[in-house]
Amino acid sequence: MKNIFKIFVASLFLLSACKEEIPTGLNLLPERSIFDTTYITNIIPTPQPTNVLIEDFTGVKCANCPRAQLAAKNIVLANPKRVFVIGIHPGKGLLNSFVAPFKTPGDDYDSKYDFRTPEGADLLTFLGGASQLPIGAINRTKFPTEANILIDDPKWNGYSIGLLKNNSIVNIDTFSNNGVYFVEANKIQMNIKLTYTASTNDSQYISIAIIENGLIDFQKSGGITIENYEHEHVLRRMITPATGSQLKASILPGRVFEKTYDYQFATNETWNKKNLKLIVFVHNGPGGTEPYKVLQVKEYKINQ
């Protein structure tokens, strides 16, 4: 994939040149920000309520995956504008018997789409890996009674309800009049503002994902294959590296980051622009008290 982007950095303060913390063994894309600044404000905003991100690792040949997708949908419907989903189809051969499209010899069906992404494979590895689907993460939190970050779908609702009662230490907003929008027919721009309302010693990262809704294609469900299944929240691409982009400054109340990203669609990325959305989330890095935990998440429609 050829991504066309320009780099222009405007800063009110010099940022430290610390090295980004990245787990080994992952195929990561470079930073795509074209504007990046940080500063301290004396006006500390009211903390936003903590929203929930469900990362649903799924596959078109996974018979139980529609059950998990329905569980996630019900959580979203019960908590509008507070819970967001990314449907992740791992690539690179991981769990390939569950995620490969219906195009292999012996299949009776022919998929229109291949939902697998390299980023999906990286994320599955990053969050601990899995030997079966469906599996998912709730704000990438390792709950006290769980052995892993990735957990089974019957547990998603209870853990989500618990997290929704909290406030976040970081607010996610947009800046400028445009926010998230198409600057050209095949190019989007995102103006993201992060404001911390409390301190943390954990390293901080931002991740931005492009998802697509309303994709009609085959899906195995139990003992049948549904021809006109509607696939929602499908991960199409990560704007940031798969494991996020590190926020390189000390975190204390009033710390603000303003970052502008742009993304040029590749010629083969012929996605339905009306059905695309961005998922923006801030999370801890490796190490620290709660590694990888998502602190806040927002979903944005891309303005035409």
Describe the structure.
The strands form four sheets. Strands 1, 5, 6, 7 and 13 form a five-stranded antiparallel β-sheet that branches. This protein has a single domain (33-301), classed as Sandwich (Immunoglobulin-like), CATH 2.60.40.10. It has helices spanning 65-78, 96-99, 118-126, 156-163, and strands at residues 33-40, 52-57, 83-88, 135-138, 170-174, 180-184, 187-196, 204-212, 215-221, 224-231, 234-238, 245-246, 255-264, 276-284, 294-301. The protein is mostly beta strands and 304 residues long. The chain is built from four helices and 15 strands. Strand 2 (52-57), helix 1 (65-78) and strand 3 form a beta-alpha-beta unit. Helices cover 12% and strands 34% of the residues.
Largest sheet at a glance? 5 strands, antiparallel
What is the CATH class name?
A: Mainly Beta
Beta strand count: 15
CATH topology: Immunoglobulin-like
Order of helices and strands: EEHEHHEHEEEEEEEEEEE
Q: Considering DSSP H and I runs of 4 or more, what fraction of the residues is helical?
A: 10-25%
Terminal-residue CA separation? 24 Å
Give the DSSP E fraction (strand runs of 2 or more residues). 25-35%
The global form is globular
Strand-pairing-aware structural class: mainly beta
The CATH architecture category equals Sandwich
Q: Provide the domain count.
A: 1
